[in-house]
Predict the structure of N-acyl-aromatic-L-amino acid amidohydrolase.
Amino acid sequence: MRKKMKKALEMEPVCLPALSRVAICGGTHGNEMSGVYLVRELQRQKLEKAGSATLTTVISNPRAVQVCKRYTDMDLNRCFTDAILSSPVTDATPYEVRRAQELNTLLGPKGNVGAMDLVCDLHNTTANMGLSLISYSVQDWVIMHIYRQVQRKITSAPVRFILLDLPLADAYSQDSLGKHGFSIEVGPQPHGVVRADIFNIMKEAVDQTLDWVQCFNSGSAFEGGEVDDVYTFVKSVYYPRDPETNQITAAIHPQVQDHDFCLLHPGDPMFLMFSGEIVKYEGEEVLHPFFVNECAYYEKSIAFHLARKMTVTIPPLQVKRD
């Protein structure tokens, strides 16, 4: 522990430009209601500033929100890769691809100096995940410092960070449009409804994010150190299916259900077949399941994802002054 603390103290302070333009987005999935109602409330309050930063609020997929569905033609939150954003638009182009390109114009362009400084996208999950921040890099020091503040300040739910280790060109979610970006994922909450406790956790995370932005822009210095509960995506686990009918033949085992981020050891029960047999985890590595039994993943046959846990050391950080 002392060696790790010494390493953190030895890291050179990092100075980064102020975050002058911030976007809070909800309704990327039209039936994830906490973000929809939170963005609508911010718009009702006409909240347009976070200290010195300009605040933009967006209902990302208004058509899906109107019909309370995850999407209308295809998943909007898989439409932000470089390939899709640069694809030609025709009469046959799905609505969500068109909308992704509109959002890229509004919040990006992705990877461009003119992009929004910070994009925060709001999501719900039916899985028992508490509060998770999801992003594509643990070396984006702005995001990691925001995560540490959220983790320190919020006690009403466990707070974790999920790393999707992909290059920017392949980053598929809306938050990748910003110079810095992350998704907030809160659950469990059924799709199409809003729960007060889940809504309040999300609101507190957004409030802490905006508070951090204000402090950073005003010149506050943030100390370096260790950040725990960081999970790197390893692989997806798929439901057993009948080879002839393609129907699911098992449910997630009770020892895994609702135990997101707990340890899954080789030989542990993983699925309970409808015929009664137990399917055990045959991996060689102890990993952590998350997005366990997520409703939206049934169409993809995904039962849950597996992740590897790690600790990240972050440097001291403050705003760069001209």
